[in-house]
Amino acid sequence: MSNQFWSDIVGELKPYVPGEQPKEGLFIKLNSNESPYEPSPKAMQAMEKAIHGGLALYPEADATPVREAVAKYYDIAPDQVFVGNGSDEALAHVFNGLFRHAGKHILFPNITYSFYPTYAKLYSVPYKEVPLADDFSLDLTPYLAASSDEVAAIIFANPNAPTSVALGLDKIEQLLQAQPNIVIVVDEAYVDFGGETAIPLIKKYPNLVVIQTLSKSRSLAGIRVGFAFGQASLMEALVRVKNSFNSYPIDRVAQAGAIAAFEDEEYFQKTRKMIMDSREYLMAEVKRLGFQVLPSSTNFIFMRHPQYDAAKIAAALREHRLLVRHFKQAPIEQYLRVTIGTQENCENLVNALSEILSKGI
Ligand code: PMP
């Protein structure tokens, strides 16, 4: 079969490019916004128990225990919770189930999670990118002015990635009030590091979908569990798309880990505080080194140095076995996104940066 066959199908589709996952060598990974801490010991125990009992059997098809545990945590109903194999998969179902056949376009910021344009192309969803303000904050004006005759949905990350800037819940509610006939999707992958969740608003606004993940603040990127939250009628659209695969693709081990993670509030609060404290340390130190840093409500910071080239800094850090994320595209090509590691990781980074800048690059 010729390449023409599949190239006609995938067309211009460019795959999402994840941060480097080194296969060898001792790198400090500050490039993928994972947690530097192990998952909750209670989640580890629950997963070990699941491994030793019942792996020969299929998992709970509707992921009901997980949906019940998460619903209890957020004081909503289990039919308002959709579980995905990572929030990337929940997002895929949102694009496929809610956007694809709408016959209208969707809106998202020009600087945001790069999976949105990837999914839009994959599912043939027309889209328009709305520029962020010059300070990288999200200006609501174009979204408030959108016409529901043309726009099916608005999707943005709050706090935003890779910029780390958060939008207040009052603004999100303002948008929901102004646009009752447009689906509003708020991706809260990083919300636990200083943002405000919009989940309580799903009770009031039938057009709201909130996305969350266990990959960041719950230290469980390895088990791939993410969620969509919304009123049951919206979640039903996702379930229908998913049903072609029969059951929730969340295996027994992941289900057990997810439930236990939500039950260990103490560990969750402790690790997120450690990350936020290290973030304040890192921010102050890189500012001292001359970097300009955006306000952060996430487990990463977004920074640029007015004198030094970002790609060169990233390459020099790699020589020090430190990986950070550099995006090549304008207008953020002079920025670096740095994940908050342990306090020691942050100190290593500061030492490496001061050495690199003092030598000049
Ligand atoms: N949304 C945003 C904004 C992200 O940065 C990420 C992580 N790359 C995700 C969703 C997906 O995370 P996961 O699939 O691990 O849940």
From TrEMBL:
Aminotransferase class I/classII large domain location: 28-353
Broad class of enzyme this protein falls into: transferase
GO biological process: L-histidine biosynthetic process
Cofactors demanded by this protein: pyridoxal 5'-phosphate
Residues found modified as N6-(pyridoxal phosphate)lysine: K216
Alphabetical list of HAMAP family matching this protein: HisC_aminotrans_2
PANTHER family for the chain: HISTIDINOL-PHOSPHATE AMINOTRANSFERASE (PTHR43643:SF3), HISTIDINOL-PHOSPHATE AMINOTRANSFERASE 2 (PTHR43643)
Assembly notes: Homodimer.
Annotated family: Belongs to the class-II pyridoxal-phosphate-dependent aminotransferase family. Histidinol-phosphate aminotransferase subfamily.
Name recorded for this polypeptide: Histidinol-phosphate aminotransferase
